[in-house]
Records
---
Amino acid sequence: MEILIAKGAGFCFGVKRAIDIAFAMADKKQEGIYTFGPVIHNPQVVEKLREKGIAPTDDICKDDIKVLIIRTHGIPLDLMEGASKSGYEIVDATCPFVTKAQHYAKLLNDDGYQVIILGDRDHPEVRGLMSYAGDDALVIDGKEELPELKSRVGIVVQTTQPVDGLKRLMGKVIERSREIKVYNTICNSTALRLKETEEMAGEVDVMVVVGGKNSANTTQLANLCAARPVRTHHIETAEELRPEWFDGAGKVGITAGASTPDWIIDEVKERIKDIGGEQGDGT
Amino acid sequence: MEILIAKGAGFCFGVKRAIDIAFAMADKKQEGIYTFGPVIHNPQVVEKLREKGIAPTDDICKDDIKVLIIRTHGIPLDLMEGASKSGYEIVDATCPFVTKAQHYAKLLNDDGYQVIILGDRDHPEVRGLMSYAGDDALVIDGKEELPELKSRVGIVVQTTQPVDGLKRLMGKVIERSREIKVYNTICNSTALRLKETEEMAGEVDVMVVVGGKNSANTTQLANLCAARPVRTHHIETAEELRPEWFDGAGKVGITAGASTPDWIIDEVKERIKDIGGEQGDGT
């Protein structure tokens, strides 16, 4: 059984930076360090941090907070302002690309554009972006019909969205509005990972997508593969792998979301190798 | 034989305004009135003006100019400035929607965007727009590959382009640039005329498209019909109609460009009626 790993699989720049910040804080062994929500969307990494004494919280007013680490997805403006007034230290691990998208959402709103955010309305990054985008802002996931729009529309995009959705949205908006200003805030590494994964899915018999079930970009990779279609399995850890998934498979592809650590990808690879060996194909 | 006429066929607002301006000037019976180029892209109208003593010229320095009427498609900035310095009277019959597009091209350039003009590079409107769009501006007709672009791109559109081409261009640009600002300068009446013509082409056996062979928007209507596909004939006047075009036709559609006068459309309709009668279908 041949096993391929997508080059762009695993930690992106923003996640790596957030993890480095969080673990560096953990090394200080200070009391009262929290992350606002899970610092990244990977339960195993969050668990490792918890073991080192850093837990996630959703309560910025929690009594014993000494340091609050802002998650990589960013947080809404009012929470950031509330936390700033609380007197404890704030360590901002927001991905710089998300910070940039927040900045652009504010800029568009300040310039009088009606802001559309293309993304998943329940995702923390999008909830954060919304808080910068003004009262008439809309979240569009790309599937629904557009409501009536103002004549000047500005668009920012959740950093992990595929570019095709942005193109479709722009096409719909320009039929309804006279002026449109778009900041393409899709992160390059996301675009690259989607492209590599799609190509790989076309070459293999089984795709294994590794990453948090709560990770939007990992779920997106899994959906992309399943739609190809190719036999696709989305797992968080190697323990979830089942030998029967690989029956008759000559080639297996592994990809992983931006929040999936290398050590989990390696474990998955080794376990699939073992399954191949057990099935006697000599890999 | 049933004959349908597209509702949006014939003079648009900008053309009607330019014609009214030009014929009002003709009524003054003053010497030395010229239009810069043909005031609209309809040879029959231009001929009628010539009979009234108003001829087109491409030479802004012509000795005997007393009044220069600027064509509905607008003219390049340097020519406008040159004409302004010549001491004769300038009457601006530029379509207000074209003037707006010129303004937006300048605005985008002033704001530091690389300007792309979607349109036909040889069309006078586009040559005019280019003069406002800065040194790094590009004309794109939608068919060619895009060259490398700057990170901030602004788009304006020749007023008679179809919106689908704009959507395709936006999709290509957003893959290459981080910021894109689009002024949808496509004129509403153009969009409506294209839509009505396309629907009509789907219902009839023969389409007759009436208007100047040098009219971009008329040629576009003809191409749209031919691609549908439906038997399509682009004519300037009723004299060009051939009875054999209508052999076996139950339904005939007539559409016309923005620069086609009603009297020509009426003549075409009457001539097709006659052909139907000659063919003995009792229309």
Note: The mean pLDDT of chain A is 94.
---
Amino acid sequence: MNNTLRTEALEGEVLYSHRVSYGETDCMGVLYYAEYLHIFERARNAFTHARGLSYKEVEERGIYLPVREALCRYRSPARYDDLLMVGCRVTRPRRASFTFSYRIFDEECVLLLAEGMSEHACTDARGKPVVAPDWFRRAFFPPA
Amino acid sequence: MNNTLRTEALEGEVLYSHRVSYGETDCMGVLYYAEYLHIFERARNAFTHARGLSYKEVEERGIYLPVREALCRYRSPARYDDLLMVGCRVTRPRRASFTFSYRIFDEECVLLLAEGMSEHACTDARGKPVVAPDWFRRAFFPPA
Amino acid sequence: MNNTLRTEALEGEVLYSHRVSYGETDCMGVLYYAEYLHIFERARNAFTHARGLSYKEVEERGIYLPVREALCRYRSPARYDDLLMVGCRVTRPRRASFTFSYRIFDEECVLLLAEGMSEHACTDARGKPVVAPDWFRRAFFPPA
Amino acid sequence: MNNTLRTEALEGEVLYSHRVSYGETDCMGVLYYAEYLHIFERARNAFTHARGLSYKEVEERGIYLPVREALCRYRSPARYDDLLMVGCRVTRPRRASFTFSYRIFDEECVLLLAEGMSEHACTDARGKPVVAPDWFRRAFFPPA
């Protein structure tokens, strides 16, 4: 369509596409800053489905992944009806926690609109930290 | 402040005030239509607190109040930083269900911006309909 | 897959599929009642795209469609990670307003989870009611 | 009421109280992680009102404050109907940008539930960075 280089996917990155709705925008005319965290959640859900799991199943196996920290850098605004391409991958696998990293691009995957991360603990149903089990590491973590 | 007649409160109506945030507006510059249902929820929570209860306690006593139907009529838009005055009362007490009715006014309680209702069933924790117990009727329902 | 009859699409109905996210659920474990109105918006956006337009273009042509009334009947709860099938169609075309009707089904299109409607005015940029222009009626309204 | 030391307010910190609604919780039973950014917005709006301004007026004077980065650290979950005490202050005043820092406490101001920040640019209506004008610095920034 044009000769602009598309941004390459990073290793292990899963793509999720998201259409900006009216309800996600604010009176400045752009995607509201808290909505990026909802989109991050949808992107890591797509990541989990791509790994052959669902977060629901992860919970049913007794592993919960509460968010310990979330960060977003806003580079260029998104607007109503924009189609966003969102990359999600695991970047810092540790014993009992890990990080999802996100990149939000425009429809052409050329312009980086935002990037962010969420750090998750692995806990049991009562919130006690647990070491990530092998089945979880194999599905979620990049090969060593 | 001025000689405009303020709207009178209706019998049993509890007032809740709400400041419109940026995140509640949309790119048309007004309060997004789904946000009214969030405000209705905050208004019926204020109603419940005014009756000496909290919805949390109602649930702890085994009564759940899932919404069966919700309706909102939008008369005049609300904008960022507007202070809204929201009236809430019980309008249709029945054996195992009832209705909350809402009126949203501007800060002066002169202009009616929206009105709506939510119909609630009384159920147990598993969602089975139950007759509203006496302590609940005394707190929530208007005197016969 | 099974012998249950799928629900048939109604005339002019456009289907939109929606995955329930964590952020759309509440502490009762189900899709929060205000989120249905966000899903309705996404469904009418899908309807508009299926008609070869986008709501952004409609606005750029000078037609705005503010919501006058919205209603939802909640029949059976939806839960995290459920895939919902949402039907949307125009049901009451009038001179300067019309109604979108919605049906939300489970993934198999067998169980009706919710149904609702939103009534829209046709206005200019300043909110003044206008008669729906021909290009709009041809795209949105069912044939007479 | 008890002998627990309340946390002291920091210099220039403005307090905002927020009741957690049903719609802000998720199916893990806690305040959803994106909702903290909505609460941050309400807290900086309370800060602005305490400084004798409103963000609406700031925009009307031609200064816009888009978010460049947002961060939240989640220490302990908040639940439905909890009353949160939120402290907000300006921490990094610069020429054309500044940072709001937030602390979210429980009702007693004893337990720190979350902390975060949002970095804002000062721009004109078209998004071009501008030096923060004197009236803005006097109202928002701590004395040197």
Note: Chain A has one domain: 17-140.
